[in-house]
User: What shape does this take?
Amino acid sequence: MRVEKQEVKVGELAAGQALSLPVYRFHGKGKGPSVYIQANVHGAEVQGNAVIYQLMKLLEHYELLGDISLVPLANPLGINQKSGEFTLGRFDPITGVNWNREYLNHSLDIAAWYAAHSELDDDSLVAAFRTELIAACERKLDNVWGVTTGQWLATSLQAMAHRSDIVLDLHTGPKSCKHLYCPEYEREAAQYFSIPYTLFIPNSFGGAMDEAAFVPWWTLAEVAAAHGRELGVRVSALTLELGSQERIDLADALNDAEGILAYLSYRGVIAEKVLPKPMKRFGCLLKDYRKFHAPKAGMVEYVGKVGQPMKAGDVLVNLLRLDLYGTGEELTALKLPEDGVPILHFASASVHQGTELYKVMTKVFAL
Ligand SMILES: [Zn+2]
Assistant: This one.
């Protein structure tokens, strides 16, 4: 198998240093779907790099049908944004915008585009649409008024991702169990990864890579279906949340690389049959994914364990207020309002009023 390494420039620092990232291309036989996998767009979420490492080691022993592009260390500026012991790296430090909300929302009128191209056969239509999406990213980068630092990075990554049929964006939560963001049109994908909890997301754009990759294709499929043509959604895009930030665990990374391999096997990217791990898997609709905010400030004991189901009324958080000792309000137990599974919690043990303490899946169902 041929493996090629490229350095792709995604920005420049003030003193002139280039910001670049490594892209590894594993060349397949051209008979299967192509794949794009990136990791570490949020600077502290490093485990995806270990998963890419383990996946590349595994891939050396398989027969590749489709091409796989792997982009670890996908945000060099965010990764290097250290403060004391910690990596900040979630927000562009200049604009404050979340690095994973900077992707291009295609303004293309897809109904009009379809009407102008509906005479094409399916393969030509798909190729023309792909070319259009990549060209829109290139136009954005060439804009005479310029783009922000974050948009430089995001749009450069997006232009690469649009070249593939399958896009996997590897993240982690702050303190988190593993969970998957999966578009509703591809529910069966959730059965393959080594991930117990899946959020099913609708066809709407909020700025993230997975949505940037699948929303135009989902919309194209809907427009075609409205004209009686079963094109199907030709691009899959999923976000894998691989545990907690600031953590590298190579054994766990191998487990997740094997899950990705099982999905790639199911999709015909590799010739060999790789079965998913037998495990219980659960789902939740995005509308039932609830954020629990601190009703007041304080020091936090996170009692709810991520990945462990809880009942309404169970204590989720103990909130300590040393300025209120002796008033009866020095210790408050905050209860979970509804049955659910805490998926992640805030990383710091001291919080302002209104801090998002937990994200909780409610109305969880077995897959
Ligand atoms: Zn992230």
In short: Residues 52 and 102 are 23 Å apart (CA to CA). The helical segments are 47-59, 76-79, 110-117, 122-142, 149-161, 209-226, 250-266.
